[in-house]
Amino acid sequence: MLNRKKELQRTAFKPKKREATGELALFIRLYAKQEGRCMVSGLKLLPPEHPEFYKQGSHCLPKGAYPEWRLREENVVMILPSFHDEWPFVKEKDDEFLQRNRAESWIPIVTYFRALREHVYTPSKPLPKKPQVPMSP
Predict the structure, then answer these.
(1) CA separation for the pair 99, 107 (Å, rounded)
(2) Is the pLDDT of residue 14 over 80?
């Protein structure tokens, strides 16, 4: 006969310890450089003490494909979490598409991404300059 009590026993959940990567320090530095403003909209970002602060650091070049660019300031922009979710869908679009779809605010970042990627594949091309943080509406 089965012991139902033993069958229902559960073990305590033990969260996995995360190893420090240096990303948080980078995000805090960029937050200060951008004066706490989103690179897409110019709106205020979540402060560093907010539990979702880390979701605002967006890597232009993906971390997996370009691990050597993971902690480089040139590869990260601070954007609101809602924009972070849009990034995979807009980064490969051309300017005309972004304008037609009322996503003009993405054009400077997408243009920067293209130039950054070109620099990575053609090192003789100069490292592009990051776009300015827009004025909030």
Answers:
(1) 8
(2) no
